Request: fold
Amino acid sequence: MRNLLKLLIPVSMAISAIACSDLKFGDAFLEKAPGVDVTIDTIFSSRLYAERVLVSAYSTLRVGYPIHNSAWPPGTAGLFNIGGAYDRATGQLDNDNLDAITDLMNSHNDWASGGQEYAAGNYSADVENGVSWTKLGFAPDKETHWIGIRRSFLFIENVDRVPDMTEQEKTVGKGEAYCIIATHYLDLLRHFGGVPLLKGSVGADNVMDVDFHRCTVEETLDYVVELCDKAASMLPWTVPAERDGHLTKASAMGLKCRALLFAASPLFNANVAYSANTPVAKNMNAEHVNPSDIEKMYWYGDYKAERWQKVVDACKAFMDENAANGNPYKLVQASGTTSDDYRNAWNTCYADRYNGEILIQTGRHYPTLAETYLRCYFGVSDDHGNTGRGYGGGCVTLNFVDMFTKSDGTVVKYEDWSGASGRTSKIENDPFRDRDPRLYESVMIIGDHFRGRPAEMWVGGLERGAELANRAITGFCSRKYIWDYNDETFMNRPSNYSYLRLAEIYLTYAEALNETGNKAEAYKWLNKVRQRVGLPEMNDALLAQVQAGKHIPTYAEPLQGDPKLREEILDERARELYFEENRWYDIVRWKRDDIFKKTLYGIKITIAEGGGVRTADTNNDGVIDDRDDIDAFASTFVYSAPKAEATRYWAKHWDTKWYLSAFPTNEVNKGYGLVQNPGW
Reply:
């Protein structure tokens, strides 16, 4: 009983003064210790303070780029301080992006956990007890999603008492809170499967009456859908510019599409569980768990084609609602037909505020991206007043670069390229010319325009650095969310993050249509995303060409989708949604062990012997880094053969347990009904 209470009170959605202790607004009045004169009655006696509770719940939503670790000293994570800093909303791989443990990036950050723990095979259930760097921690008394759920319920259950809010304002606020809860539970579902479901506030007076056992996948998904539907019924389809960032009906309906897609995929929707290891309820957990439910905590227990149809129905409902409201949500379109036109449109669609494409944005208090840790973990230059750049978190793989076709839609692979003299060429004829415009906005490519000069991605160049420097050791580094890393783009760009945008819904619709046998309609929604960047329409002939020779897995279930189109949609999701933390979930939900086990590659680019070198300040402008002072651009470059990255643990020791995260052993051992995932 004592151990159970130690767990349950921190995880509870308390409406007593206990819950006020994590609501710190930077205001002297509300900084007073709970139990003095800061009570629920005090907070919800004012619209100002009530809205701050809701904003503090918003602050817990996940952001995919690294935030300065303000959660110091330990125990301060999750605090909302107007006068201070926000924490970074879950461990986030200790400042690696989730793409760093996929085939798109390979982290060379010497201390971040993407490479040091996950790729090295050091992750375990015991590690989850620390929760400082896992891809999504679970511990109820530490993790930001539980804080967000608690704050949201606190708002829902108390906002009606606020005297200076209208009934409509209260309803909309509750809808936003329900959507925040849905977002957190969906993140938990995608990492853990079924989880304990809290459906209201819990305090010291009723904690013993609440069932905290782990629920099934189906129960967890149904709850997410219920929350999305409830939120949608309370929220407007759009908000005016001054309320940009608030969740809407479109946010809730889009989130529902994402949830149903994940659950319809073979990880959960299959005739055989992804793991042959069947966990058992240990210690006191057996008292709270029905043995027949254990397998269904990480798997539906069967395959049903109707689960794919539910995705189609949810996406169609979204499109119909958007049309009924005059289609205010649309993809950001280019103003012309040049590569730069397409690039300029695409590099704003995921970052600019109020652009008509982002459905859920999750920023932080930082006024500009310059104040985030993007500049250090994913930065490319040693200049701009600070040498603390390029920690190696964004080393893009050649595997990802080769996913981008030529601008005419045809396939081109680096290993098939040969310059005029073997693997050599001038910079203007490098092997990455004339590709899908999104390549150059996602990845730093040699010779591409960067800060008024060609990007120096050769050994010794400004962006690549020394041969053993971590920041671009694969020959590439991330450019998305960094742009030119200058005052006009990065330094003064609002720190906005796209958690969910319309392009993902289009691709979700295309995937579900394919899996329900409607290939022609699937092409329609896939092509909307392709055409935005000037790529030709996908059709059967082009599909056969771009997917020729690829390994395409088969499944025991009677899937109706064209396997090649399925693969192309997954490739398109990788290209379109890079750095938006989708790839991990895509390869997990389709059980793509082949991707986990593949060899990752980089390249090395050097200046040919006798080629140009950086010279003195020949134009006397006081800047030696100026392009006018560099001879290298007229030189010949040597491109290495693909260079294999260090083998990840998964490649030789693959286990299906990696599809879902482990629950912390400390939590499992408390005996309140938390059953461990298979293999952990």
Remarks:
- The longest helix spans residues 167-192.
- The radius of gyration is 25 Å.
- Residues 1-36, 70-91 have pLDDT under 50 and may be disordered.
